[in-house]
Design a protein that fits this description.
Oligomer: single chain
Shape: globular
Order of helices and strands: EHEHHEHEEHEH
Radius of gyration: 15 Å
CATH architecture: 3-Layer(aba) Sandwich
Largest sheet: 6 strands, parallel
Number of helices: 6
Distance between the termini: 8 Å
Mean pLDDT: 96
Low-confidence stretches: none
CATH superfamily: Alpha/Beta hydrolase fold, catalytic domain
Number of strands: 6
Strand content: 15-25%
CATH topology: Rossmann fold
């Protein structure tokens, strides 16, 4: 499988490279664009300030340019938190998308979004301060209405970015459970 994996607002941290290596070890080709051009942040607030200063349009443009050389292969779009929102926007706009893997984050969905049974898997803390239950319910319904085949996996008691060992949210058990489910999902596509 050809996968593009986007980082969170913390930037391209070692945990993102470790995730890409885990996916590569399972036989996948993984591309890891750096939308923040080398900047890495110690707090989510610093990363969000940089994201807002740079602007969502500019970051989306960087993402499109990063995936363009690979998009003819039929990509699985994946991302962590903010990176998940980028992945979702690109996957819903790419008629060749093979799948969408959202780790810790979603994005709004355009009313005219339409896909043909796009496999989507979301992994989310339960509860998650950035993805409230009401938001997730609405997101799920809109994704289904757009034609996506959606699975949602919640991890009770885990923090928002529970897969990053370098952050306080890290939950080793939840992360391992998630990766097992992710690898099975990718094998099913």
């Amino acid at each position: 499988m050809n996968i593009v994996l986007f980082h969170s607002t913390y930037g391209l941290r070692p945990a993102v490279h470790a995730a890409a290596d885990r996916l590569r070890a399972a036989g996948h080709e993984v591309h890891v664009p750096d939308l923040f051009e080398g900047r890495v942040f110690d707090t989510a607030e610093e990363g969000m300030a940089f994201r807002d200063e740079t602007g969502r349009d500019e970051l989306l443009k960087r993402a499109v340019l990063a995936v363009a050389p690979h998009s003819d292969k039929g990509l699985v779009y994946a991302g962590f938190s903010f990176g998940g929102s980028v992945a979702q926007q690109l996957a819903l706009a790419d008629e060749k998308a093979r799948g969408l893997l959202l780790l810790h984050g979603t994005a709004d969905i355009a009313d005219d979004a339409a896909v043909d049974d796009l496999p989507v898997q979301l992994h989310i803390a339960d509860p998650d301060p950035f993805e409230t239950a009401d938001w997730l319910n609405a997101w799920y319904l809109r994704m289904r209405r757009a034609g996506a085949d959606v699975e949602v996996h919640g991890y009770p008691g885990a923090g928002h970015l529970f897969t990053d060992p370098g952050l306080p949210d890290y939950d080793a058990e939840a992360a391992e459970r998630m990766w097992g489910t992710v690898l099975a999902f990718l094998e099913s596509i």
